[in-house]
Amino acid sequence: LQVLESGGGLAQSGGSLRLACTVLGFTGPGDHDYGIGWFRQAPQKRREGVSAFHTEDETTWYSNSVKGRFTISRDKAKKTVYLQMNNLTPEDTATYFCALLWGDPLTMASVWATEGRQMDWWGQGTPVTVSS
Question: Per-residue pLDDT for the chain (132 aa), expressed as one digit of tens each?
Fold first, then answer.
């Protein structure tokens, strides 16, 4: 199984970017539900949870710093979770990671809120730079 991010890059303040997190390695019927979390880490700062989604009930979570600006969504057929980031600011500059958790939504809520330390699979990260 792999978790693959894409979509990072450069944006101006007030601009938008869309990140994608694709889960690879699921085949055939019997897929299990899972949670996908987006995290970011800027230089000299701790990793923080940005947003998360659970496939079981499509629950979503957002940090206060991105609420109202970022939207998480899923394309079920593509096994891809998107993070639409609007009204970007330089404070959003970071490397963004997505990660997968084998667990129910309640567990996902807990794990995502604690920097994702117990997430099961991590992507390699994609950099986002927002210029002022």
Answer: 889 999 999 999 999 999 999 999 865 455 678 999 999 999 999 999 999 999 999 999 999 999 999 999 999 889 999 999 999 999 999 999 999 999 899 999 999 888 888 999 999 999 999 999
* Non-local CB neighbours of 59 within 8 Å, separated by 6+ positions: 53, 105, 108, 109
110: left (phi over 0), alpha (psi -120 to 50) or beta: alpha
| Ordered DSSP codes for 87-119 | S--GGG-EEEEEEEE-S-HHHHHHHHHTTTTT-
CB 105 within 8 A of CB 54: yes
Contacting residues for 66 by C-beta, under 8 A, at least 6 apart? 50, 51, 85, 92
Closest Cα partner for 92 from 35, 14, 37? 14
Contact call for residues 50 and 83 (beta carbons, < 8 A): yes
Helix, strand, coil tally for the chain in percent (to 5): 10, 45, 45
